[in-house]
Design a protein that fits this description.
Radius of gyration: 23 Å
Helix content: 40-55%
Largest sheet: none
Strand content: under 5%
Number of helices: 1
Distance between the termini: 50 Å
Order of helices and strands: H
């Protein structure tokens, strides 16, 4: 025996955000994207550079 579950349509959630909060979030996003690019570049440099010793992962 199984319990019948009623399925509801998805609900839309509306939120308000202040302009200064939006600017701060955009700046944070840009900073994180730059960090991702820097880390990718660093990782690619590590992969391109043949090395006999691999650093330990922490």
């Amino acid at each position: 025996m199984s319990t019948a579950q009623m399925t509801r349509p998805p609900q839309t959630l509306y939120v308000s955000i202040r302009r200064d909060e939006l600017r701060q979030l955009k700046a944070e996003r840009d900073q994180l994207q730059q960090e991702v690019l820097r880390l990718r570049s660093h990782l690619q440099g590590q992969l391109d550079q043949p090395s006999s010793t691999q650093p330990a992962l922490c």
